[in-house]
Fold each of these.
Amino acid sequence: MQLFQTQQIKLYNTLSGQKENFKPINEGHVGMYVCGPTVYSNVHLGNVRTFMSFDMVFRYLKHLGYKVRFVRNITDAGHLENDADAGEDRIAKKARLEEIEPMEVVQRYTVDFHNILNKFNFLPPSIEPTATGHIIEQIEIIKTILEKGLAYEVNGSVYFDVLKYNQTKQYGILSKRNVEDLIHNTRELDGQSDKKNPQDFALWKKAEPQHIMRWPSPWSDGFPGWHLECTAMSTKYLGEHFDIHGGGMDLKFPHHECEIAQGEACNDASPVNYWMHANMLIMNGKKMAKSTGNYILPNEIFSGDNPHITKAYAPSVARFFMLQAHYRSILDFTNNGLLASEKGFYRLMDAINIMDELKASESSSINISDWKQSCYDAMNDDFNSPILIANLFEGVKFINQIKEGQASLTQDDLEAFKTTMNAFVFDILGLVNVTKVETDTDKLSGAVELLIKIRQEARANKDFALSDKIRDELAEVGIQLQDGKEGTTFSTN
Ligand SMILES: [Zn+2]
């Protein structure tokens, strides 16, 4: 018996605008695709929040016993400035400005992305495919859409024919727009474009002579349109029809709308059952933007090196802060918010540290199975992490009451309680008990202090050979001793 047989998830489906019972296509298996980053700059904190929401979803589905194939791509070509069909490729532009190869840009920021996600204790996705690794698949999809008569070629570029598609299908079904409004609200083509209508979007773009990132195709040397890669990679790894597609709210239109259109055009069926969108992260009540200075990089949170925060925060504190908001709510990133979360986080960890020492009793004064189910209920209700966290603090209260002798649990209840606390705090929310790491640091300090004392005695005995040996060998393992007026201190690197 797996947990998913007793725990029914309800999730908010952007497509229907309602919370729906989650039922995977194949029982016990979940296919989930999340649009990954365009790797042309350091990962934005707002994107980290989006990916963290789906990391939590991934973790919870796994906890319930589902076999999850989670695909999160890397966009390393085809994403033009302003998300439009004209303008420079974001990666190529960065490469030109820094005078390096586009693939050096891709490498640098893919590594940065992974480093940041590792610090936040993300689970790696099951597959992390790249757009440039799937050019052939993208060309095949374009051929199919052309054969179906829903795309046209002009001067070596291929465009999706939105108006023709809309005669039999519904373009705008996800973002609740209709094509008539889109026509009214889109400015006229300036004569530079090859498109029949401004609503059409590129499937393939012929490369200008100076464009470095180019591949041969039946139509021209060029590159795929941005929306196409996700259709190609999700189809390849999850099939024409899969369970969950996620991404940031900003991708709903046009990116995800175009993915639906491409999938429908190829297979006459909607590619995805459940569309999930994570809301924005703002800072101090305003949009985060480098240009206005209202901006912070994830690494600056860990170092404290940013004027908008007063101190450094552990990655788990920042993670806890973000999960204290529901993924569909706007989250306002503020120093006061972080300070409050830090207090809460350490209160939770302190309680967990004493949980292991709690003693069982003859009887239970707390109904643990009710409390445990309320933790599941929170997550089953569209992954409501703030309500879950409120339940975990209820657990903190139990720990303190049991410790003070004001409440009791039988051996079985105590075991169930500990298992549930650990599962939700560490496996599902993905927090790391940094206070335990500090305990290790305390042990290290104790050992080094002892060596400093021995070294002082050696010096007092004029045994300079031993004193130097202690200093040099500590330096070799990365511990530097500094002799000062106040005595000897040490630092590590
Ligand atoms: Zn995508």
Amino acid sequence: MLCGIFKSNWEDNDENFNFLGVPIDITSSYRCGARLGPDSFRKILSSENFECSSESEIDLIKHYRIKDWGNIGIIRSDISKSIERISEGVFSILSEGKPLLVFGGDHSTTIGVGHSLENLNLSTHIIYVDSHLDLYDELMETRFSHGCTLKRLTELNNYEGATLLGYRDFTKDQLSLARNERIKLFSTNELISLPNLYQFGYDLGIKLKEKHSNIHISLDLDVLDPSVAPGVGNPVAAGLNTRELLWLLSGIFQSLKTTHIKSWDIVEYNPLFDVSEITGFAIVKILIECLSSLIIQ
Ligand SMILES: [Mn+2]
């Protein structure tokens, strides 16, 4: 049972991975509900539905003890204080030196994560997997909107460029802004035209780790096609299927390992719009295969 590796109270401080929920959707621009993501995901994890083993025959229970730190206390009336709280929470966990998966919340979650990486003085390249560019300077009268996330990350002192994978909903202006901000772009169409997405992800990881010591991965679930991930805030049709995303991420995680991936986030899971937990099951599969890829030799 997969939830066996998630506990809030490991004895002797022997956990080797961390999990933190960020129930935030204050700035969601279309469908609100991502604040319910972390707890819904925990419920799916605790079902009897999953073996704790990956397709590479890795038994996760032998390798992982994941400490679940619960949820950040979001202040729904104050986005900037909420971002600060996310930053403080992520900072205190990452400063203990063990890798962390942050589970959103909408994509504003990652603005808080970015602040903590800056406070930790971790020079960081961002792998941003998303159907959107998230480069608005301001959206709906806030600079902390989930549509501004990548823009805010490019402004951090420790920003070392970004790689955006899977975009397909954009304006021409945003594309030129992206190029000016040292963001390397790969559209959904480019990705699915590749002969081997696993190899592409693996080679990308190898190239990035030659130049960067720390890489944060931000996975917005709307990179997936709405038919395989209906439970997201801003769905965009004609996306990757779950297997394609798994190939891509497995390659990236296998080449980078936790030597380079200290932090990772999964955002925009909106259980209010999920259908028969399709999206939830996809996330569990992604989690199992990515955790497994981190330890495959
Ligand atoms: Mn998005």
